[in-house]
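Reader question, answered in our methods column.
A reader sent in the components of a multi-part assembly and asked whether the whole thing could be modeled at once rather than chain by chain. We filled in our standard form and ran it. Here is what they sent:
COMPLEX SIZE: two components
ENTRIES:
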Amino acid sequence: GQQLNQSPQSMFIQEGEDVSMNCTSSSIFNTWLWYKQDPGEGPVLLIALYKAGELTSNGRLTAQFGITRKDSFLNISASIPSDVGIYFCAGDAGGTSYGKLTFGQGTILTVHP
Amino acid sequence: NAGVTQTPKFRILKIGQSMTLQCAQDMNHNYMYWYRQDPGMGLKLIYYSVGAGITDKGEVPNGYNVSRSTTEDFPLRLELAAPSQTSVYFCASSFSGTGNTGELFFGEGSRLTVL
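And here is the structure of the entire assembly that came back:
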């Protein structure tokens, strides 16, 4: 099946620092999504990207849909303690795969006050 | 707003036992999904449903069964529990699998341990 390689696996940063994580795939996706999971909760959608090259922001978060449609990145600026959690990229290949997301392995973010 | 509700939140099973994880959504979503989450592995799709009476296998369906008799409910059944099924299970729903949505709404998860 399709696989997404997400990196880094974990990050330990100081409050106020910027964060960058990315996701790559060997196959094309029509939609890229970034989710965040807080401890003991289910993932929650942060940003959705629908077009190659698209750059979208949501507050301090910025994500881009790679031109090749095989990669995406997420940036978090000026991190705060509540940014702690696991961040997942996810891709939707469309076609017969519509609605079935492939998830990356996740990036565990720790923010030190 | 209840959203997606999963029960139970925690369960310990003995090898060979069976159980059903319940999932209900009140958002009138067509699509529903079951994922399992193992440490460092992300989420893997077990089964999904595009509407009442329609179900299909995901990436890791072996050892599981589902049914979708109503739009609201999508239970996941484990017939003969095995240690490899120790995981956190997430139910999710979306309005449609098509179009510019892609947003899945997840439940809080059910942590299952098989000993």
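What stands out: The first strand of chain A starts at residue 4 and ends at 7. The interface with chain B takes residues 1, 4, 6, 9, 31, 33, 40-45, 48, 50, 88, 92, 98-101, 103-106 of chain A (CB under 8 Å).
Send us your own complexes using the same form.
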